[in-house]
Input
Amino acid sequence: MKIALGSDHGGFNLKNLIIDHLKQKGIECEDLGCHSTDSCDYPEFGLKVAKAVKSKEYDFGIIVCGTGIGISIAANKVPGIRAAHCTDSFTARATRQHNNSNILALGERITGPSIALDIVDAFLSTDFEGGRHEKRVNMIEEIEKEYLK
Ligand code: RB5
Output
């Protein structure tokens, strides 16, 4: 499994913790920035990870900002990206099962480190259920197509 990670300054420390956690588990990671706690703009890194996941070079993306919200809004502007902002492992599991989410978004300022790692593990170890959920994910793609016209 190959994961692309990105954050702004508000998510920098949690992103590094996640990278250490994934590397310990033998999961391949690529840090697409930012690379310090200097102030920067979350849309830039949401877009980088979204493009990386869309290219299919990576299985999933993990993005972190202060709240997890701004960076997920940015990533979700890329067609085919389903970035889910999660604050607990139930939601992380459900969004994989039902929404086939391909990016996990976390907020360093709202989710503690242990819970965040638990969310990461739940997200990465859960498969899409397909079936009735497939139709609904396809409906999201139809909405994208409508606005790409
Ligand atoms: C940065 O201060 C902060 O606005 C950002 O990390 C994020 O929370 C935006 O949604």
